[in-house]
Amino acid sequence: MTNDIDSIFAVLSGVAVLLPLLGAGLWFWLCPRLGEKLTGYAASSFLGISFLCTLILFFKVDSFVQLEFARWISVGPSNLASFSVLLDPLSLALGLVVTGVGALIHIYSVGYMHGDPGFGRFFSYLNLFVVAMLILIWSDNLLGIFLGWEGVGLCSYLLISFWNKDLANAQAGKKAFIVNRIGDFGFLIAMFCLYRAFGTLNIPELLVLVREGGLADWQLEYSLWACLGLVLGAAGKSAQIPLFVWLPDAMAGPTPVSALIHAATMVTAGVYLVCRLQGLFLLHPQVLELVAYMGGATAFFAATIAIFQFDIKKVLAYSTISQLGLMFLAVGLNAPVAAYFHLITHAFFKALLFLGAGSVIHGMHHEQDMRKMGGLRKKMPLSFWTMTIGVLAIAGIPPLSGFVSKDEILLMTKLADRPWLYGLGLATALMTAFYMGRLWFMTFFGRTRSDHEVHESPANMTAVLVVLASLSAVAGVINWPRAWGGSEWLSSYFGDLVYQGSVDSQVSWGSLLMKVGIAVAGLGLAWWKYRAFVGGDDFRSSSFRLFKGKYFIDEIYDFLFVRNLRRAGELCWRVVDQGMIDGSLHLLGRLANSVALRFKRLQTGVLQAYVLWVWIGIIVLLFGAWSLGS
Description:
The protein is mostly helical. The chain has helices spanning 2-34, 36-60, 89-112, 119-138, 142-160, 167-198, 203-212, 217-237, 246-249, 255-264, 269-276, 278-281, 285-306, 312-332, 336-363, 381-395, 401-415, 419-444, 459-474, 489-494, 509-530, 545-548, 553-600, 607-629; strands spanning 65-75, 78-87. The protein contains 24 helices and two strands.
């Protein structure tokens, strides 16, 4: 009976991954034959089937299931890596988000990408993106995770630079790809260290060895370096300090791509990785402390930049970096359930906000500057009301999902007795409410500042917004605190899979009211400043130059690294490539040519000369034979 059940699980998980993988190879060449709508909805249905398979697995898998499909890499008698899956609460919960939100984004894209000459190519890339993310979160070994890790990196490059005829878009894709290679180097180092220390890259086996304890000092040293490498990898994928610079430029791609990257796929990978290997990180509390401070600093830092952006997608991009910082703050303070809870709610309201922004951009004929918007609430009512729910959710207005999940992170930070981090969290919450209120008022209120004829988006786009708005409103119930009459279902669902410190069951109404007051204050300040915004620069003082310039981090990186690496590359090209390699080859060519020219003189065409040389050769051979004989 167990084998039959495992076979069913294998079929479901195989279909969930392989069906969109098949689609990724189809839509390139089927689109001209099937047409846009049929291609778009077929690609969306493949994701819908993947979601249904994941949903069945979610309800049927009790604790965990490990299934091997094929051997991949063997070293001697041991199996280093297999094509296999690990289905447990961590992977299935995120799998539902990836396939569910991914399917909604596919449906939305049918309307958004209408008329684009690369329509089929776009949906092939989208299907492949979801496949890579499923491989990442379902693999039971680090090499499999790394395969998916590189897959989402490739797909992000392909989709960010999708409109690659524009040089800026191509450069944005290249920037994302190269910055992530830095993080990937850390991941590779981590795998080498873990294999050296434990002799396996299989995650369940690795965590069992860690739990058993009794590790030698050299094993702990290797595991420390592994944890640091994993943190670097997570910082790259999840856009944390110092590797956050690629994500704002990723807005160069079509808006559904931004929603997929920010809500359901790539940027969640770092949070997932640290939660999955929490047992390993518990060996080194100092690394978790580093993660917490990295997350807190990133959350605050990105929020200060978001306030000064005018591109509606750039505001949301820095918001994602900031919210991911809060998740890393929670993970670093041993609150992975709180981080995962916020990851799930964030997926809903951030997908809603990005797709809502895409609806506005679509209705505004691809205008993204909020200074040229205004007064859209009457012209785009569905987009307005659905985005309103998203704005209030991320701002932290109860009882919407963002308030519940963000409050849990702040509560865990307070209970961990980290006053500086708690202060950063509260300041981030205030700034989040302000910059999202600013986006809301500048876009939908005041007088119209656009010359375009604005229109509401088609039904296949707005219907998706309605679904995401509903999820953003109610998703907080999945871990509604017991102190508020809830069941904290997500905590119970994860069980002993991850460790989270206890939460005080008593409600601190003062603390709760303070957090609500912070959210209301941020929105109120935005209303006071932007309710009648007429355009122009809203921060004219030169004292804001540092924030408006995004702390000039890109310029600093360009000065310190990019230029010097380019110079080093040019030096290597001139000295090593042209001087040594090409020079050596050219020298050999000239030498061969010189020798050939000299021997060429022997080719006179005079028969007597050839006979003379034959006799000379015979004499030399005879003399050589006589010398050897004597």
